[in-house]
Amino acid sequence: MSKYTHHHAAVFLMTFLSYAFFHATRKTFSNVKSTISDEWSPSYHNNTVNYTKPDQIWNTRHLFNSRKDAEPYLGILDAVFMISYAVGLYISGMIGDRLNMRLVLSFGMCSSAITVLVFGVVFEWIHFYNKYVYVIVWILNGLLQSTGWPTVVAIMGNWFGRYSRGLVLGLWSACASVGNIIGAFLVSGVLDYGYDYAFLLTSSVLFAGGVINFFGLVSTPNEIGLSLPDKDTVVHPKEYSVVVNEGEPREAINISHVVPNSEQLSDEEYSSNHLFNDRETVDEDAPLLSSPKPLPVSPQTGDRPTAIGFCSALCLPGVALYALAYACLKLVNYSFFFWLPYYLHNKYGWKETVADDISIWYDVGGIIGGTLFGFVSDRFQHRSVIVIPMLLLGIPALFTYNSDLSQTLTMNGILMAVVGFFIGGVANLVSAAISADLGKQGPVQGNSEALATVTGIVDGTGSVGAAIGQILVPVIQDGLGWKSVFYLFMLMTLLTALCILPLFIREVKDLCKQSRMKAKLSRFKGLSVSNERAGGSENEDTDQLFN
């Protein structure tokens, strides 16, 4: 596409707010944990009174003997949500690639809003309290919420091309963090009236967003007669064929590149930035943002590409490694999401509304980090070379936040923002921009029916790790304390970097190779100009350059 239109702005805003509203409803539960644990535990006893009448009034909500007994159950609710969410992501990704993504997203938003309303409002208003029913409803909520991420990422991938994907999706991926902030503000504004009003407010917003998407969202440019951004392409008019690797069997590299029709590059820009081997097979060592041939499906024909299968998507280069890496990283990211307000309230004794407000700074850091990392990775045209250094810097940031420096509100907020910058920022980049890259590469280049499946695999595997984390955090905290929980976070961050290390090594080698090719090509063009002035031939230039 030649430029962004008002359709792009509308899609960006609607998908951004859609997932923000999803996260606002999730944030509601994490922000009211202390209130819920008080409601579900007896708080009427003192040193002289051991029994209070009438028993029906005081003991109706008595699910646990104390707040401490309620903590493991809250962790179980988080875990079953993430497990069902992970399973749902694998399924929702394939459903999104086969059905209309607008309908899938709208259904997920409205049905999830109804489920949250039942869990937090209806059960409270009719005074129904049952641990097993709560688990069943929360499992259903996880399955319905899983329809959100694969569909919104796929819709964004359909509208925005690979050349700006890092910046656009890096900025757009702040939707989760913005949703956390929206949820925290909404909850803190009504929590004094009861936790049921917090669930009522956020679920109403989510339902309204689903209705708006049903009538207004356009899932792909083809629906309104526009072409997909990566399919409106032409071959650069000049091709350079040079011989490389002297001493080995010579191989001609065709340096033609597919570029947007409306964004023709100059010879110098084109030659220095895009040196790719024109092969029919997919190269496992090829960089993630390289440009293989698009599928020969014309947007004017209206033909819908065949949706990719689960196993085929899993076997795409880089998908398995990034999925495993995201499992480790999402354990850390979602532990902050689920437990940060509770941690601040219990460790420092701050009021729950204060803890909710200060926890926002983690999301602020994630917004800045995700946007910046996306912009820089676009410039490098590689992702892993940005991700690994940021992860390694995130380890000392976690260690510092766990120290005595975070005792005051101000320092806690600053250090929390730094942790969010490195951990949350990388998580945003992996879950959005990198997932979109993985779903638009190699044999699925130009196939709009593959992106949701790939996104579901990456985020689904990440959610499995997050589910394990929600079980480990309360157990480790109860037995060893919060310091040991943060040591777990540091270990998982390191494991994330190790999972991506093979891709990092490939991309560093690729950058070095491109740097050498730029130097050779620059010298070749200089010799060509010189020989043309002297009446020489191009073949002599080539021999002089590579012999």
From TrEMBL:
<feature type="transmembrane region" description="Helical">
    <location>
        <begin position="450"/>
        <end position="473"/>
    </location>
</feature>
<dbReference type="Pfam" id="PF07690">
    <property type="entry name" value="MFS_1"/>
</dbReference>
<comment type="similarity">
    <text>Belongs to the major facilitator superfamily. Organophosphate:Pi antiporter (OPA) (TC 2.A.1.4) family.</text>
</comment>
<dbReference type="InterPro" id="IPR036259">
    <property type="entry name" value="MFS_trans_sf"/>
</dbReference>
<dbReference type="GO" id="GO:0022857">
    <property type="term" value="F:transmembrane transporter activity"/>
</dbReference>
<feature type="transmembrane region" description="Helical">
    <location>
        <begin position="485"/>
        <end position="505"/>
    </location>
</feature>
<feature type="transmembrane region" description="Helical">
    <location>
        <begin position="73"/>
        <end position="91"/>
    </location>
</feature>
<keyword id="KW-0813">Transport</keyword>
<dbReference type="GO" id="GO:0005789">
    <property type="term" value="C:endoplasmic reticulum membrane"/>
</dbReference>
<keyword id="KW-0762">Sugar transport</keyword>
<feature type="domain" description="Major facilitator superfamily (MFS) profile">
    <location>
        <begin position="11"/>
        <end position="508"/>
    </location>
</feature>
<feature type="transmembrane region" description="Helical">
    <location>
        <begin position="7"/>
        <end position="24"/>
    </location>
</feature>
<feature type="transmembrane region" description="Helical">
    <location>
        <begin position="384"/>
        <end position="401"/>
    </location>
</feature>
<keyword id="KW-0472">Membrane</keyword>
<feature type="transmembrane region" description="Helical">
    <location>
        <begin position="319"/>
        <end position="340"/>
    </location>
</feature>
<feature type="transmembrane region" description="Helical">
    <location>
        <begin position="413"/>
        <end position="438"/>
    </location>
</feature>
<feature type="transmembrane region" description="Helical">
    <location>
        <begin position="132"/>
        <end position="155"/>
    </location>
</feature>
<protein>
    <recommendedName>
        <fullName>Sugar phosphate exchanger 3</fullName>
    </recommendedName>
</protein>
<feature type="transmembrane region" description="Helical">
    <location>
        <begin position="103"/>
        <end position="126"/>
    </location>
</feature>
<keyword id="KW-0812">Transmembrane</keyword>
<feature type="transmembrane region" description="Helical">
    <location>
        <begin position="360"/>
        <end position="377"/>
    </location>
</feature>
<keyword id="KW-1133">Transmembrane helix</keyword>
<dbReference type="InterPro" id="IPR000849">
    <property type="entry name" value="Sugar_P_transporter"/>
</dbReference>
<feature type="transmembrane region" description="Helical">
    <location>
        <begin position="197"/>
        <end position="218"/>
    </location>
</feature>
<dbReference type="InterPro" id="IPR020846">
    <property type="entry name" value="MFS_dom"/>
</dbReference>
<dbReference type="InterPro" id="IPR011701">
    <property type="entry name" value="MFS"/>
</dbReference>
<feature type="transmembrane region" description="Helical">
    <location>
        <begin position="167"/>
        <end position="191"/>
    </location>
</feature>
